[in-house]
Design a protein that fits this description.
Oligomer: single chain
Helix content: 25-40%
CATH class of the largest domain: Alpha Beta
CATH architecture of the largest domain: 3-Layer(aba) Sandwich
Distance between the termini: 65 Å
Strand content: 15-25%
Number of helices: 12
Largest sheet: 7 strands, mixed
Strand order of the largest sheet: 3-2-1-6-7-14-15
Bound molecules: 6-O-phosphono-beta-D-fructofuranose
Number of domains: 2
Length: about 375
């Protein structure tokens, strides 16, 4: 009898998810003796009655590595550690459903699980592993903020999209002698902003790891205009923080979604600069989910495919409780418990890209 593998995609979507799904399916088929299934909407597909599972055949997965999103769909409202359950009085209570999830997965006859997701999803993987589930993780996030891997798929695509948008903003900034602020994603880490600022040649790059001072930014703008270079392009991460302020966002109104929804710091900065007396006109563009949509760039397709193959190899070898990782240009694996210990942030003192940025005249708004 074939052994069954279950794949889940959880949290925010990201270009490359389908490439992992396809690679696991292909590698399992080639090895023989395996069946691969997908759980719809993260693990909700298992927790729902009746379960919503889909058999991942060659036909269903053919060519999907080129497509953005996830054919399995996803959600950030189904954390089995804190699953929102409506009470008879209409209120919502968070229930730990991890043991039930493990029991259901085993009862459905699955030998192993591949959980594709970011930091939140891998914490779930670790919890399920501790409850006796044969599980491996595959890291995804456009933010690239997972500690145990040098890169996550989706990140390069997000940087490419942001850079292309930045290039477009440069020409209009130049024509109108304007200050253009472009807000990119990056909840706690400034990787997308930093890479885009260097690739695009921004004058100013504002990231969560380096609190900014609007006065310093205004001085940089004024200096540029005094020199006759009559435009300025700023990249700002959604999680950037003014030195005397806090992040800009709102609490999610969605039941079960624990994240604060960031967004709006670009406009906040515009207001700060106007209040400080900035003379040139300022316009703000927020890229938002555009950075997460569409087809993955070639590098992300390859990285995601390699990670999918590795995930299957870990299962075949019985090496559970691990997350696939990209280290020093090699695909390897790390224990899940190490992978979930904190995030990977830009080190303002030691990151070589911060030095590269400063050396090429990019200001972080701090000095
Ligand atoms: O973690 C990835 C990310 O894209 C963040 O940069 C962003 O804050 C968040 O997801 C938004 O997710 P959603 O709108 O799906 O809740």
């Amino acid at each position: 009898m074939n052994k069954k593998i279950l794949i889940s995609t959880g949290g925010g979507d990201c270009p490359g998810l389908n490439a992992v799904i396809r690679a696991v399916t292909k590698a399992a088929k080639k090895a023989g003796g395996w069946e691969v299934w997908g759980s719809k909407m993260a693990f909700n597909g298992v927790l729902n009655d009746p379960p919503e599972l889909v058999k991942l055949t060659s036909k269903l997965t053919a060519g999907i590595h080129v497509k953005g999103g996830t054919i399995l769909k996803t959600t950030n409202k189904g954390n089995p550690l804190e699953f929102p359950v409506k009470q008879p009085d209409g209120t919502w209570k968070k229930i730990d459903r991890t043991q039930e999830l493990v029991d259901r997965i085993k009862h459905l006859g699955f030998h192993a699980v591949v959980n594709i997701g970011g930091d939140g999803s891998q914490k779930i993987s670790q919890a399920l592993f501790e409850k006796g589930l044969n599980i491996v993780g595959a890291p995804k996030t456009i933010d690239n903020d997972l500690k145990a891997t040098d890169l996550t798929f989706g990140f390069s695509t997000a940087v490419q999209i942001a850079t292309e948008c930045f290039d477009k903003l440069v020409t209009t900034a130049e024509s109108h002698h304007r200050v253009m602020i472009m807000e990119v994603m990056g909840r706690h880490a400034g990787w997308i902003a930093l890479h885009t600022a260097i690739a695009g040649g921004a004058e100013i790059c504002l990231i969560p790891e380096i609190p900014y001072d609007p006065e310093v930014i205004l001085e940089k703008i004024n200096t540029r205009y005094r020199k006759g270079k009559g435009f300025v392009n700023i990249v700002i991460a959604e999680g950037a923080i003014p030195k005397d302020g806090t992040v800009v966002g709102r609490r999610s109104g969605d039941i079960g979604d624990q994240h604060i929804k960031l967004g709006g710091i670009g406009n906040y900065l515009r207001m700060e600069l106007e209040e400080e007396g900035c003379q040139p006109q300022i316009r703000t563009t927020t890229l938002g989910h555009i950075q997460r949509g569409g087809t993955p760039v070639a590098f992300d397709r390859i990285l995601a495919t390699a990670m999918g193959v590795k995930a299957f190899e870990l299962i075949e070898a019985g090496e559970f409780g691990k997350m696939v990782s990209y280290r020093n240009h090699m695909i390897t694996s790390v224990p899940l418990e190490d992978a979930v210990k904190g995030n990977k942030f830009v080190d303002p003192e030691h990151d070589y890209l911060v030095k590269v940025a400063r050396a090429t005249g990019i200001s972080f708004g701090d000095q």
